[in-house]
Amino acid sequence: MAPPRAVARRALFLAATPAVAARRAPRQLPRISSQRASSTTSTTTTTTTGPSLGSGVRTAAFVTGLTLSGVAVYIYTTDTRAFFHRYVVPPLLRFMYPDAEEAHNAAVSSMKNLYSLNLHPRERASVLAANGDPDISVSVFGTHLANPIAISAGLDKHAEIPDALFALGASIVEVGGCTPRPQEGNPKPRMFRVPGIDGLINRYGLNSRGADNMAMRLRERVRRFAKTIGVDELSVLNGEAGVPPGSLLPGRMLLVQIAKNKETDESNVDAVTKDYVYCVQQLGRYADVLVVNVSSPNTPGLRDLQAVEPLTKLLSAVVDEARKTDRKTKPRVMVKVSPDEDEESQMEGIVQAVWASGVDGVIVGNTTKRRTGIIPPGVGITPKEQMTLTETGGYSGPMMLGRTVNLVKRYRKMLDGQSWREHVQEKKAVDEAVDASIAGIDDTITGIPKEGLAAKPEASNNIPSTGNTAEQKVIFATGGITNGRDALQVLNAGASIAMVYTGLVYGGAGTITRMKDEIKKEVNTSEA
Ligand SMILES: Cc1cc2nc3c(=O)[nH]c(=O)nc-3n(C[C@H](O)[C@H](O)[C@H](O)COP(=O)(O)O)c2cc1C
């Protein structure tokens, strides 16, 4: 924190050297001594040096006090636990920006500016490191994450503030959704609040600046990071900087979400696949995990891609392209599925496509088109809010939690189904046998040593590349998670990570810190 530290250092310096401080003291202070000097000669010496020294010390003390107060205010206001992050900022944003999208844009640009000035809210490491705290770390794709909380897609649509979001304490940040070509999204207004039930409705329609633009921004971020630590861009991307190439932070992961353009005909699977593949080519290098979005309710036909055949084709193409990423360790691939496709046959189709394509995991949940069961019993909402609930778009809010927990349980069971694993293991055995015979032929012809072709051992700070297709599929949960207890519910249902969006909008910048504290308290209580 350059400015306050500079001020603090100067203040300490002034306090330690009163003579210098006295020289710099404001002019009116010596005037008191000159008045006294005119009364007697004998007092001249004492009055000119005495009060001047004393006032110098007082000034130094005053400046020091002021500075220390400034530092204290800085430390407090930039701490995610400051009360106003929860009780002042969110209502103030709602008051100042009646349009929810304007509030969203203002929040993103404030975070961006505050981050560049090092004045952004952050979770201070010491906060959560109390002795005897239960361990809430999780391991995902071989990466050890300090906590199971993530920020889900749509908050940072254009990858403008991933670092500011990581600073809030999340171990995973998902940026996007990003489409191959820039698109405006739906006409405004397209985001609405239902504060009586802490809910939101949005029909953004995947407004995106396009994959080239996002890639440029993410590349610039990698370059800046490489420069700070004195290595080149490629070394960072190859994991030689000791951090995952996406998040650029130890023990964190950056997810980049990709989608198709609205104008791409959803019934033309080849064209759709081309859209996603282009995004992989542009963005794969900067992601720890690529997320295939086939579940946003605001792009016509997008959710039809969840049918087994187009989904298998699409996901297989994305996985293949991700494996070609020009980087030592390849990005993992996940698919984000809708909470509304919840019939057994629909879910089974998705699971089949996941296993057949080699995708590494599923993000279960998104906003819902349904409007049933979203008002808690006994809670009244205003006529205006009732009108808002009739807006077209995807609803998100705490009442989605029950559905999310239920879906996670069902997906966990289906994904772990023995039949899928056996099928993949059989296929893997056949593939390996074929590979081995081809390698044998290659060896005879070219003489390439076998170890030269073997997969390199993974660095501990890297996300290991997709390889073992029979390993358990990972689930991240999203939808209605707003506190630590909710997070524990989805984790106990079979998810590895609990993702938040709407909870942050209403709960403010301290939401994630609070959730982690709540998880720890819950764990402690249940262990007691
Ligand atoms: C304004 C807004 C924009 C969103 N944009 C996206 C998006 O671009 N891609 C996506 O997959 N999900 C998007 N979502 C869905 C969220 O990522 C999340 O899955 C959903 O809101 C449920 O979680 P929550 O209850 O914590 O909000 C958006 C949600 C909101 C409220």
UniProtKB/TrEMBL annotation:
It comes from the Eukaryota. Pathway: Pyrimidine metabolism; UMP biosynthesis via de novo pathway. One of its GO terms (biological process) is pyrimidine ribonucleotide biosynthetic process. InterPro entries: Aldolase_TIM, DHO_dehydrogenase, Dihydroorotate_DH_2, Dihydroorotate_DH_cat. Residues 137-416, 453-521 form the Dihydroorotate dehydrogenase catalytic domain. This is Dihydroorotate dehydrogenase catalytic domain-containing protein. Its cofactor is FMN. Transmembrane segments: none annotated. Residues 1-22 form the signal peptide. GO terms for molecular function: dihydroorotate dehydrogenase activity. Keywords: Flavoprotein, FMN, Membrane, Oxidoreductase, Signal. It holds the Pfam family DHO_dh. GO terms for cellular component: mitochondrial inner membrane. Residues 24-52 are annotated as: Disordered. Residues 38-49 have a biased composition (Low complexity).
